């Protein structure tokens, strides 16, 4: 009962909003689209509609003056309002409906009673012939443009007004069914066409979204295929390197401890690189959720690398260890108070240090390397400096990678992604230096 009472109280306000406002969302048109519901062939419709309105203007004026005894000016004014509403309904159906309804009510109120029986033809209510056709056209366009609730409200009011006007206009024989069925039929057809158009528009939109999603899925599948190919090729070669490094000591008589250590370091680096590759590419070769990868170090099974945590600066010693094992002198220093940083910052700092060390190994043979990590209030600074090489590099000097190779490009992209700064360039002694600053401001939890 309370729900019904609340609904009855809210009904007048809702009816007022529906009948006096017609926002664009009610018309089913996108923002900025033309208000006309007929698209490109609207101009072709306006010409015959204007001609028809002019003809109906003359007919209505004659009917109102001859049959309903209206004065010539009043008959011309009311007929003009109805004729203009006939055309205006294409653009403003709600305003046209108001004009048509008020004009029809004015016709009934202005009719002169008491003329001889037989003057009005049988079955001539005020909605008959011209007025009924005009109102039905306006209701059809209104139902085509506005929400079904508004269409139901307007057709109900139109039927009530028609019946009241038909009873008010003197005449021997009125047909109330005609004043009900024709407007209701016109409104129903308009609402059905509107629903069909909106369903078709929704279907077209869904089809377009499906096509976009299909294209996107194709791109992702192609990228996955390329990544899988890359994984297979690189994983194969890294596995071969690991096996060869494991077998090599057995092919030499009395191998030295230095040789064994170097070969073990090669094998360890190959296995770590393979695990890192599987982590980055998502172990694309493995399609079995329950299939754990094989451990190339000593057989058996190990944890899926896809589920291993991403490396951070806390694992910097693990990154420097193989470089030292390769015979390089590496000095690592940490300044400031180490603190937790966002995972992305720690990962990017680790990758930048990793790439800088790789560049130093490739382009500066025998050079001494210094790795500095500084924790500052505004972020983290990572600096990798190598001295001048003690022998020529295989391809070029220590600055061979300064011209913008893929490694340096990757460092720049990572730094820019976090809004940091990257500086690279030669040192006065003939070496090379890479300095990256990644913002990671102190938080209240980090402050002692």
Automatic annotation (TrEMBL):
CDD domains, A to Z: HATPase_UhpB-NarQ-NarX-like
GO cellular component: membrane
Chemical reaction(s) catalysed: ATP + protein L-histidine = ADP + protein N-phospho-L-histidine
GO molecular function: ATP binding; phosphorelay sensor kinase activity; protein dimerization activity
InterPro entries: HATPase_C_sf, HATPase_dom, Sensor_HK_TwoCompSys, Sig_transdc_His_kin_sub3_dim/P
Compositional bias per record (Basic and acidic residues), positions renumbered to this chain: 286-307
Transmembrane segments: 41-61, 73-91, 98-118, 124-143, 150-169
UniProt keyword annotations, A-Z: ATP-binding, Kinase, Membrane, Nucleotide-binding, Phosphoprotein, Transferase, Transmembrane, Transmembrane helix, Two-component regulatory system
Enzyme Commission number: 2.7.13.3
Protein name (database record): histidine kinase
Organism: Streptomyces clavuligerus
């Amino acid at each position: 009962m309370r729900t019904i009472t609340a609904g009855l109280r809210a009904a007048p306000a809702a009816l007022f909003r529906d009948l006096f406002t017609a926002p664009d969302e009610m018309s089913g048109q996108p923002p900025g689209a033309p208000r006309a519901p007929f698209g490109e062939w609207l101009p072709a419709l306006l010409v015959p509609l204007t001609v028809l309105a002019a003809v109906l203007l003359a007919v209505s004026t004659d009917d109102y003056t001859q049959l309903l005894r209206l004065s010539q000016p009043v008959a011309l004014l009311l007929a003009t309002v109805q004729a203009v509403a006939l055309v205006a309904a294409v653009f403003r159906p709600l305003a046209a409906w108001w004009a048509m309804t008020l004009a029809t009510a004015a016709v009934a109120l202005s009719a002169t009673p008491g003329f001889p029986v037989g003057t009005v033809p049988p079955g001539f209510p005020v909605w008959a012939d011209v007025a009924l056709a005009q109102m039905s056209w306006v209701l059809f366009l209104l139902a085509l443009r506005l929400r079904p609730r508004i269409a139901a409200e307007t057709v109900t009011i139109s039927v009530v007004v028609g019946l009241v006007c038909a009873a008010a206009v003197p005449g021997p024989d009125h047909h109330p069914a005609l004043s009900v069925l024709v407007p209701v039929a016109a409104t129903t057809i308009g609402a059905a066409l509107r629903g069909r158009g909106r369903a078709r528009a929704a279907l077209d939109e869904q089809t377009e979204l499906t096509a976009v999603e299909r294209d996107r899925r194709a791109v992702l599948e192609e990228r996955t295929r390329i990544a899988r190919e890359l994984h297979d090729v690189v994983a194969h070669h890294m596995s071969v390197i690991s096996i060869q490094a494991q077998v090599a000591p057995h092919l030499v008589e009395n191998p030295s401890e230095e040789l064994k250590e170097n070969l073990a370091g090669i094998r360890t680096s190959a296995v770590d690189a393979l695990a890192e590759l599987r982590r980055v590419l998502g172990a694309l070769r493995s399609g079995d959720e329950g299939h754990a990868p094989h451990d190339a170090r000593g057989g058996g099974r190990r944890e899926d690398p896809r589920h291993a945590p991403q490396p951070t600066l806390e694992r910097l010693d693990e990154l420097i260890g193989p470089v030292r094992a390769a015979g390089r002198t590496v000095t690592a220093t940490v300044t400031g108070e180490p603190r937790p940083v966002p995972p992305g910052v720690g990962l990017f700092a680790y990758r930048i240090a990793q790439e800088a060390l790789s560049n130093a190994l490739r382009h500066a043979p025998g050079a001494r390397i210094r790795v500095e990590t500084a924790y500052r209030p505004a972020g983290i600074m990572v600096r990798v400096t190598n001295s001048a090489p003690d022998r020529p590099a295989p391809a070029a000097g220590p600055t061979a990678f300064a011209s913008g190779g893929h490694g340096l490009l990757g460092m720049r992209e990572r730094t820019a992604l976090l809004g940091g700064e990257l500086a690279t360039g030669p040192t006065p002694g003939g070496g090379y230096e890479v300095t990256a600053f990644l913002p990671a401001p102190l938080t209240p939890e980090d402050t002692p």
